[in-house]
Amino acid sequence: MNFQALLALGLAMFGGSASASDFDMSNPTFFLDIDAGYSIFKSELVQSNDTGITTRYAFGVNGGASRQIGMLFARESSTIAFKNTASTMAMSWQDIDLRYRLGPFYAGLVVSSTSWAVTSPPRVAGKIDATGSAADYIDLVGSGYGGNFGLQLPVGRRNSMYGDVTYVTTGTVQQKAAGATGSAAATAAAARVSTIGPRMEVDLGAALGLGHSSFDAMCGFKYRTYSVSVDGTASKELLNTTYVGLRTNWTF
Prior knowledge:
The chain is mainly beta and 252 residues long. Helices cover 10% and strands 66% of the residues. It has three helices and 13 strands, in the order H-H-E-E-E-E-E-E-E-E-E-H-E-E-E-E. The chain is elongated, with a radius of gyration of 21 Å.
């Protein structure tokens, strides 16, 4: 009995009815994802909590005899306005994942980059004075690498549940230059020394096939945590996102 047959038998013991072909259907040759979510951001950097919208798009390809080798590119962006401290935070993450799949499980390497732009009022004795005017605080880009592993479990031929864990270290961070005509605040921001700590995220969700089309509806929950240090002061950041989206895929 081969691995996929053993796995299908195991799933049947838990009430599933997956077959070897179900795993093929849930792992297409090419796919494109677009989703948007409601995010809750808890930030020590801007000393406040608030909500905003996170958008994401991703596309990937799978190849090999059983499409067990895959590559994924994903970009996610968030812009959060923190009303209590009159601050804003705009950030994006770009990940390239190289994966190897064994049945419903996969693991791989991640190459990541990120960009951040934060504005906030002046700080007095380390505390943000929300009555002041917001100005550039940090404006940076970074890159790093890490890994991820996950599970994509088919439920019938078109539906699936998935879980994904990613861990990335950001080793290189550069503060953008203020420019020759930059403001005093931009010049001060350019002089700050910033680092970004390891990013850990967990993504749990499901995909539901829409009839006989090549589209799937998606929904899920993502938890992300990391730290940021500015001029030696470390801050913990937490982002929770509940999202819905659409996937289109082709298998050939």
